[in-house]
Amino acid sequence: MMNDDTICAVSTPPGSGGIAVIRVTGPDAFAVCDRIIVPGKRTVPGVTGPGRDAETKGLSGYRANTVVYGSAYRSSDVLDDVLVAIFRAPHSYTGEDTVEISCHGSLYIQQQLMQLLIENGARQARPGEFTRRAFMNGKMDLSQAEAVADLIASTSAGMHRLAMNQMRGGFSDELKQLRMQLLDFASLIELELDFGDHEELAFADRTQLRDLANKIRYKIKDLAGSFAAGNAIKNGIPVAIIGKPNVGKSTLLNALLNEERAIVSDIPGTTRDTIEETLYIDGQLFRFIDTAGLRDNTSDHIEAMGIQRSFEKAEKASMILYLFDLTQEEAEELVPISRWLRKFNKPILMIGTKNDRARRSPIHTSGNVQVIHISCKEPADIERVKSYIIRLANLGKVTENEVIVTNIRHYEALCRAGESIERVIEGLDSNLSGDLLAEDIRECLHYLGEITGGEIATEEILSTIFSKFCIGK
Description:
The chain is an alpha/beta fold. It has helices spanning 29-34, 107-119, 129-136, 142-153, 157-167, 170-194, 206-225, 227-235, 249-257, 301-316, 331-342, 355-358, 379-393, 408-429, 434-452, 459-466, and strands at residues 7-10, 17-25, 37-39, 66-74, 77-87, 98-105, 123-124, 237-243, 275-281, 284-290, 319-325, 348-353, 369-373. α11 (331-342) links the parallel β11 (319-325) and β12 (348-353).
């Protein structure tokens, strides 16, 4: 896509509000806006015509990074009084001349201003086109551009901090260092190939190259390994609530959410399918999944399908809350269940419910299984459950400069880069020829370049990435 036209879009959320912002960017941004906006005085726009103040300069006559008061006109009628922010290329978000029009938030005014801009030479922007132009004009790399979408979508402190760090180039700086090390590596191999017939010249010390390759491998592995935590921070940690029928699974979910979300009944098999709800605890998003009650024998085909889904959700979840009824099950009965739960190899919190009636002390816990006794009627017990969930999630606080991968595309590229560097190390160990080593190094460089956009040239890939953005960003 060539950036040879001028685009416009409403950048504030859809609907009416106090103020709306319309962005215009491109080579004719000032000219288009000058045709409909007169700064300062309430005069009719146009090079000539009644009411035009000859001494009034258009928007293009104002300095960059200034805000100008003016009026927007349709023919000789004032549509709205507006504030106009002026940004000049290359010092703007897109790297092009840019105008941001702040008008009153009436839907009618927004539609009329957009119509006027289009009638006077602009066109409606596509999703993400402003950020795409920023990428194409070198204002940010592709990973930073994707962080813009993450920043807009952030709903927690952790998500916001990660997106800000990536948008400011934290992830890009890490990749830049890796690529520089790989390029140094590749240059030594290439020199070895060019001067291979001069045995007295030793450009590539294989021991040093292996040490460098190992450093790169560990760094790529660390970055790829951070994706699990990054994905949890971005999309929420899935927590499966499982247990036998009538142990209080739905009651606990309702208590955590502080609303009657799930149907509570003494009839076994009431919950037949999974119910998913999200909740922020201490700034972290969790996705709670209430499942059908587990029991060995049921003649109800639908309930049996629900039980099967319960096991599937438990397998896929990052954490399991296993509920049991303190008034029904003795401590010795829970020992085999604890052993079975431990096989899931993930944090498990066994929660004994109805402790307002049983009043029992928790059994001994070990490994990945923790046990607490609660009453869902007691707010303090619900808070205790939340504290355990935060502790078991073990995400820690995201520091300001911490680099954590949150994008599946970045994760896949890192995995491919890791495979390439592994082949380089294997080649060094087996004394592989320099030309084959160079091929694997170039492949590793390619995958790292895909993340920042240095190796992406296809319209299809860029269109897919930016189509996920909102219009106006």
